[in-house]
UniProtKB/TrEMBL annotation:
Signal peptide annotation: none
GO cellular component terms listed in the entry, alphabetical order: extracellular region
Catalytic activity entry: L-arginyl-[protein] + NAD(+) = N(omega)-(ADP-D-ribosyl)-L-arginyl-[protein] + nicotinamide + H(+)
Region (Disordered): 37-56
Segments forming domain ADP ribosyltransferase: 44-198
GO molecular function: NAD+-protein-arginine ADP-ribosyltransferase activity
Protein EC: 2.4.2.31
InterPro entries: ADP-ribosyltransferase, UCP029215
Protein name per UniProt: NAD(+)--protein-arginine ADP-ribosyltransferase
Amino acid sequence: MDELESYSLAEDEDKWITINGSHVKIDENGDVVAGAEGKINSNKNEKKSAGEKLSANEKSAISSYSGDNFLKINSDLRKGKDEDPDVARIDSAIGKGSLEGGTLYRGMSREDAKKLFPGGDIKKGMVVSDPAFLSTSKEKKIAGMFSIGGVMLQIETNKGDKGLDVTGLSSNKHEDETLLPRNAKMEVIGVHPPKSPGHPVTIKVRYISEEKRPAMDGITESLAFDRASVRTIDANGRLQISRTNISKANVNGYYGREIPRSEELGLEPNKLYRLWRHPDELRKAAKTFNNIPVLSKHIPDFPTDPPNEFRVGVTHSNAEFDGTYLTVGMSIWDNSAIAGIESGEQRELSASYKYVADMTPGVTPDGEPYDGVMRDIFGNHEALVPDGRAGPDVLVADSLPPELNHMRKHKAEAIRATLKPLLAQDADLEAEVRKALLALDEAEKKD
């Protein structure tokens, strides 16, 4: 059958159900009329999976997921809930794996396919993703059991793409299962209609692994909403913020793994490096922060793959650098985002931008040493985030890495309590807390 540019899943569909793991077609009387071939036998030449690399908890989570737990976990993930401890364990397990390359298959009903392809409309070039984990098989016949009368995804992967062969840990070893991460992105590269009634629509997709997505080559910098800024609600109910701080010329610490081209630069992943956002670089970058999206979460925003579901506003066209701060106005369209800002629950902005790391060390005019300078800064988006690194005027320099977000809060509280009575009233307490944390980190590394 010829390849199509697009395809729309029909509303009037054959009725298929699952019996003992096989998809079967039923007539109006409920009698099975096709597809009762039964399960495929287990693969006797079972390959070793990546289980040897996993912790006991990760293995248990994978095994449970491959049984019945996948229903609950994936249902929760599609509702935006990821509190189940097994989610983090599966995330970690998949993060330790990589694919050998080649084709993976996933069979699904048309109703499930409509959730992946909004409205059931499939077009070449479109990029789709599922908030849930994606179970696939290396065996087309296995996926075929789940795609009779439905949809067959034919997923093209490359060596090194993110994913985990869970065959050795699965409760259903005959499925020869490979698990792809949640929110795995796929680009449609071909659409083939059913060859005959009962056959699936075949959709060829290219897996866009996390490792292969367009690199932000940047950083995310969190700032407090400026309470002194003028805020108004316009006639359409949108929140208009005349101007607020979005960046500051200062020195902040970043782990080597957070810095673009870190391997090429020979940086140690877990070492802290002090980077200076040079005033001249922020001045040059100001216009790139005009008219960029405001998102409800951090995700790179590119025209080829816009995260429309997370866009809640846009910056104005008045970005400027005043010698210390980079500022801009913004419009917020989403009611929940507006409520969070007004209540103070969503009190921080986070700027995301590309930059080039110039790892030439030096000292700022204020006498603060640095390991490198951020050059060629270029804005990508603003985001509403729950936690910044430090600072009341600029709750500064990115959303915290996960380990800092938990471990360092207790240290920061102790340092804050000690320093507060010793500082002048107008002193930047949070900046001093951050410096103390960085010094403590360096001292602990030397020990």
